[in-house]
Specification:
globular; two-stranded antiparallel ribbon; 54% helix; single chain; 357 residues; alpha+beta; 10 helices
Length: 357
Amino acid sequence: MVTAWSSCEQDVDDVRDAVSAILTDLGPAGVDATDGFGPGWDALVKGGYLFVPADPAEGGTLAEALAVVEEAGRHAVRGPVAEHGILAGWVLERAGLPVPEGPLTFAPAPGVREDRGRLFGTVPRVPWAQDVHRIVLLVDSPDGPAVAMIDPRELAIQAGGNLASERRDTITLDGAAVIQQAPAPGFDELEARAALTRAALICGAAARAVGLTLRYTKERHQFGRPVGRFQAVQAHLVTAAQQVRAAQVATRSAAMVTTFEPEKCQVEAAVAKIVASHAAGVVAAATHQATGAMGMTKEYELGHLTLKLWSWRDECGSEAVWSRRLGERLVAGGAEGYWPLIAGDAVAAAAEPVGSR
């Protein structure tokens, strides 16, 4: 396990470096909403980085896939980078269904019902619904929760978006035909994966926002010296940098644990999403304080990044939702389960007095 874990960490670092180099070479992403996904998405597809995460023994792990998502967040890549392989592709594969070619998206659809191979209902805020090849939904069927794949061309789609102008469309299902369907596997892990995708996106965008702010405060002079030399500005920069690092540690740790010990995914994802969502708000506020009015202009990249942070902090479970869920789990475990849950079973056992074992 130790060897496999260490090897995976090295693979994750290699993937992150490679994707960062590719996306950096493309230059700054466009900030306006446009049709299609753009060169960032195309580069990731061409490089084979939008894969379906497999078993750790087979390579192409969740931790590596989340490293790609983090870099996509840093470089503002448009498209369903988070949904394509980690959610839609993975749940299809786990359900024993073939994964089709072309971009995929995923959305839970608890209010949708399935009847003899047809779907009925409405699903709001489906990421990139009008732009993908197939939509994968988690629906209610007569036999229980099911995975259903549909063709977006057969749907009525109402265009929508989040604060950052990323597609979040409403789809209306009026007897839409199901292309593939199977019982839904691993709901807890699927939910955790969704939360981790948003935590990873936040890590990338937050790091980019802090980097931009550091550069701006070095270049911008006021009263004869860089504004970054003023103590009040430095306090904002330190706070933002601390929050980014905390989010990275929580998210990357959760990615590794979920890769090798998926039974612990809910707790790890909860911690990562709580820390990342909190960091999103703090980083957005601190970087705007440090840059002043410049940070709010349409021409400057920072404002577009912070719009993404504000959007992603609430998607796939807000900070409050995951905090409540984690708290309920702690209470349900009682006093005996508290320390093992937060420290890990092995660490907790090693810390127990000898006479108590």
